[in-house]
Design brief:
Blueprint lengths: L2 E3 L4 E9 L6 H11 L9 E4 L5 E14 L2 E9 L7 H8 L4 E7 L5 H17 L9 E6 L9 H8 L6 E3 L8 H19 L11 H13 L22 H4 L9 E4 L3 H4 L9 H47 L6 H16 L3 E6 L6 E4 L12 H10 L6 E4 L4 H8 L7 E8 L4 E9 L8 H28 L9 H12 L9 E4 H5 L7 E5 L4 E4 L1 H21 L6 E8 L2 E8 L18 H12 L3 E6 L5 E8 L2
Parallel strand pairs: 2-5, 2-6, 3-9, 6-7, 7-8, 16-18
Antiparallel strand pairs: 1-2, 3-4, 4-5, 10-11, 10-14, 12-13, 13-14, 15-17, 18-19, 19-21, 20-21
Helix pairs in contact: 2-3, 2-9, 5-6, 9-10, 9-13, 10-13, 14-17, 16-17
Bound molecules: guanosine-5'-diphosphate and magnesium ion.
């Protein structure tokens, strides 16, 4: 009876280890706990007697990762084996999604195995679980003992259903993972069969999922194999392991020791009356079993909250770090924060600085998957309008499925997170989820939106810096693109022009040429960006020359630099001699795109540009800048 929480996107699957006392159930769970990776295992809780026999149950929560977009949590529970805890065993079996029967291979335990199996069947029936259908796996443990029953005999006596069976030496870890892997696969197959919502997407099988999730939980597929070189997860390289992948549970098992009535009572004293004791025990057992699960949920909540806090801390660090790293690397880091927080398998970021967008993909992606199809490209445009993060799932839209599933790797969902400043969209982060990912629940989307707000600041600063450094390239821009450049420059904050002290005469000197005269007061200096300023002044000179030629004059341009109160004035004027050519009607349009670039550059330097024409249509310009 799988516990599905649709809204929270959580699924819980309960796997029960059943069997006679001292058969090795607790040992199985201990081994799994020891071998599981920190981030995947929860707190292992055993409630034991002072002699370390299991009283209530052993509880091991494991996180397998995603299943059909849900966060799948596995609850491994081992029943107490001793005869007197039959009530507890009955309660623990309730709601089982799969059962492992751990038999003791020792010859002298033959009868106990049979008795325990019979009891298990009747307990399953009590809870309306069909013993002939429930996913079941047998483990014949303690194969290392000197006197053991042959496997065939155990199999014939116990495994009437001919379900998978394994020989094991749990104390040495042998057969433990094989058993677990098989019950997990069978339980998930049955889950898929019962719940259409949990059916895997086309091309995915429970077998491939199981292999992947075993590797995710244990770092390898067999316990006797050395742990794999830990594959660097996407974007993990620059996030500290200790904080951002805080362990899901503690490393040390928690064992509660409770003196049992038998241990407390003086020898020979009657303990409690049978019937009353049984119902009392039942209610306690039930309460405790539930308490155990609740405690585990709370622990998970707490761990998640810690993780969220760490992500915010990380984002704030990025927001306040000095800006010496290049923009691509910064943007990549921003993206990695999102990837980590969402548990995504791939990500791209659309930067909307400048007129045309720029897309940056994190490995393994090299291009954006959504823009593969026409539909996807249109959807991408729509996504630029979102205010809060949203999640699109392939199963909800055939067009999206087509866009997401056709590439390598293939994806099942995409979350879009917009990064916007007060007035404009700076970027759109697209987070892609593979078939085995747990998709973000609504509260996780809210968290992503919060991170986006924190990360908008650095993104804006990077975009501005990038734009100002690319200003050097302005000089080779053509007239048509000048309009685009001007609009870009106009949107930059004034500080983004490089605040460098420039000797004005050095800036202007290269402009001197035949027909261009220079008259500058030595020593005037301004704060600014030399190539940008030079480009602006050269453009004005060219405008004068063009005007002269159009009016049939030989260009004669003068540049004059004068000190004025608290600033410097650069005057550029054309005063060429009239030639014999006729004068055309209209002059060049002073408001053209090129001039608007000059306006933007001057404004970026905190200055003013005044343009005018004299009586014979000669243009003249005056640029006033603040001195350094
Ligand atoms: N020789 C041997 N001892 C084992 C093996 N597995 C578990 N044990 C030991 O058997 C005892 C009972 O194991 P435990 O896991 O507590 O059994 P449970 O009552 O089924 O939970 C412990 O002392 C274990 O160390 C095994 O494969 N071989
Ligand atoms: Mg035990």
């Amino acid at each position: 009876m799988v516990d599905i929480q649709l809204r929270e996107r959580k699924v819980k699957v309960k796997l029960v280890y059943y069997g006679p006392a001292v058969g090795g159930k607790t040992t199985n769970l201990k081994v799994l706990h020891e071998q599981a990776l920190g981030a995947r295992r929860g707190q292992f809780v055993s409630v034991n007697s002072t002699q370390d026999r299991t009283i209530l149950c052993d509880l091991l929560p494991l996180r397998s990762g995603g299943f059909r977009g849900y966060d799948l949590k596995l609850q491994l529970v081992a029943v107490p084996g001793q005869a007197m805890y039959s009530v507890t065993r009955r309660i623990v079996v309730k709601g089982a999604d799969g059962v492992v029967f751990v038999a003791n291979s020792a010859s002298d335990r033959w009868q106990e195995n049979l008795k325990s199996l019979q009891e298990m069947v009747s307990n399953l029936v009590t809870h309306r679980l069909d013993p002939t259908r429930i996913p079941l796996v047998f483990q014949y443990n303690k194969r290392d003992l000197p006197d053991v029953v042959p496997i065939e005999a155990l199999s014939r006596a116990l495994n009437g259903r001919r379900v998978p069976e394994f020989a094991a030496v749990a104390a040495r870890g042998e057969g433990v993972l094989e058993t677990f892997r098989t019950i997990l696969a069978h339980a998930m197959m049955e889950t898929c069969r019962q719940y259409p919502a949990l059916q895997l997407p086309p091309g995915q099988t429970v077998e491939t999922w199981t292999a992947e999730s075993i590797r995710a939980m244990f770092g390898r597929e067999r316990l006797d194999a050395p742990a794999e070189e830990k594959v660097l997860e996407l974007g993990e390289s620059d996030l500290e392991e200790d904080t951002l992948t805080a362990p899901f549970g503690a490393a040390l098992p928690l064992t509660l020791q409770i003196p049992t009535p038998g241990e407390l009572a003086p020898p020979g004293a009657a303990v409690v009356e049978g019937g009353a004791a049984e119902s009392l025990a039942e209610s306690y057992a039930q309460a405790s079993a539930e308490l155990g699960l609740v405690v585990d949920d709370l622990r998970e909540e707490r761990d998640r909250a810690r993780l969220r806090l760490d992500e915010v801390r990380r984002a704030l660090e990025l927001a306040t770090a000095p800006g010496d790293t290049d923009i691509q690397e910064r943007v990549r880091r921003i993206l990695r924060v999102f990837v980590k927080a969402a548990g995504a398998d791939g990500a791209t970021l659309w930067l909307s600085s400048g007129e045309s967008g720029q897309v940056l993909a994190l490995p393994p992606l090299v291009a954006d998957p959504l823009s593969r199809t026409m539909w996807g490209a249109t959807r991408l445009q729509e996504l630029r309008e979102i205010a809060e993060p949203i999640l699109d799932e392939a199963q909800a839209s055939p067009s999206l499925a087509e866009a997401l599933r056709q590439g390598q790797p293939s994806f099942e969902a995409v979350a879009a997170v917009s990064l916007r400043s007060a007035e404009r969209l700076l970027g759109l982060a697209l987070l892609y989820f593979g078939p085995h990912a747990a998709l973000p629940a609504p509260e996780a989307l809210v968290h992503l939106g919060f991170l986006a707000r924190v990360l908008t600041g650095p993104l804006e600063a990077f975009a501005a810096r990038e734009a100002s450094s690319s200003a050097d390239r302005l000089r080779i821009l053509s007239r048509p693109s000048a309009a685009a450049v001007a609009s870009l420059l106009a949107r930059l904050p004034p500080e983004s022009a490089r605040r460098q002290r420039l000797g004005l005469s050095e800036v202007i000197a290269p402009l001197e040429a035949p027909g261009v005269s220079l008259e500058a007061e030595r020593g005037a200096s301004v704060f600014g960006d030399a190539p940008l300023l030079r480009f602006a002044l050269a453009t004005l000179v060219r405008q004068c020359e063009a005007a002269a030629l159009e009016h049939g004059r030989i260009p004669e341009v003068s540049i004059r630099v004068d000190d004025v109160p608290s600033g410097v004035q650069i005057q550029i004027a054309e005063g060429g001699k009239a030639s014999v050519l006729t004068v055309p009607e209209a002059g060049p349009d002073l408001a053209d795109a090129e001039l608007s670039v000059v306006h933007a550059i001057v404004a970026l330097h905190g200055g003013v540009l005044v343009a005018g024409r004299d009586a014979n249509q000669s243009p003249h310009f005056s640029v006033r800048l603040v001195t350094a």
